[in-house]
Amino acid sequence: MINLRHVSKRYGNSGKMAVEDLNWDVEDGKITGFIGPNGAGKTTTLKMITGILSPTEGEILINGKDIVKEPLEAKRQFGFVADSPDSFLRIKGIEYLNFVADIYGVTTEARKGFIEKTAARFEMEDALSSRIQSYSHGMRQKIMVMGALIHNPSVWILDEPLTGLDPKSAFELKEMMREHAAAGNSVLFSTHVLEVAEKLCDRIGIINHGRQVYLGTLEALKEKYPNETLENIFLEITEHA
Ligand SMILES: Nc1ncnc2c1ncn2[C@@H]1O[C@H](COP(=O)(O)OP(=O)(O)OP(=O)(O)O)[C@@H](O)[C@H]1O
């Protein structure tokens, strides 16, 4: 569960808020999709939730832990996949996974089980012994997803996680997200691909110019705009806001 209370962000001395007065509950047992036009404030919001950026105003709780006041406890609750997977390029995939597992105190047995299972799903077994700099974009994305989930966090936060993944890997990651939510956990991810949001999400949050314009189920949104695709609804909401 993630709770945002009156969360706003201003970069530097800029007069304009990049994100303004977000009030969100990301519920357990559900996949929540976060959508909005370029520059709407999605990455800024995800970076505040994960403690990379401090909110200018407001409070963010992850499973009840305040990301500003109890950062270590709050950070144990989630796994985060950032929008760029180009990190830790000089080390091998397996070294990266062990490094992250060490930070979170994951046992040898638990990490072995996780790596075997997930590497098989992502077809990454042969790549683990190579340096990350030799990976394609999609392979880098997959190793970052594996690193984010290796400590079995209950809350998953993913910024554009399907970008660059081949169809099999995208299918596997979507299945993993569904399984995780079905087990009673929270999954929050941002995407520009509205078909993915439409098929995968239980709930949708739409942000425009830093402001929350919708948060709720897809069904409720479609009741409000009958016979419209999510694409048309999105364009309608964001063009006239
Ligand atoms: N480091 C920064 N310094 C100043 N302004 C920033 C910074 N990062 C983002 N912004 C501004 O904050 C606003 C929100 O940007 P953000 O990256 O959160 O949007 P986004 O919804 O993730 O966009 P996209 O879909 O293009 O990734 C934009 O106006 C952007 O110019």
Automatic annotation (TrEMBL):
Protein name as it appears in the record: ABC transporter ATP-binding protein
GO molecular function: ATP binding; ATP hydrolysis activity
Pfam families linked: ABC_tran
InterPro entries: AAA+_ATPase, ABC_transporter-like_ATP-bd, ABC_Transporter_VariousFunc, P-loop_NTPase
Gene3D superfamilies: P-loop containing nucleotide triphosphate hydrolases (3.40.50.300)
PANTHER family with a match to the protein in the record: ABC TRANSPORTER ATP-BINDING PROTEIN ALBC-RELATED
Organism: Wansuia hejianensis
Keywords: ATP-binding, Nucleotide-binding, Transport
Transport keyword on record: yes
Location of the ABC transporter domain: 2-234
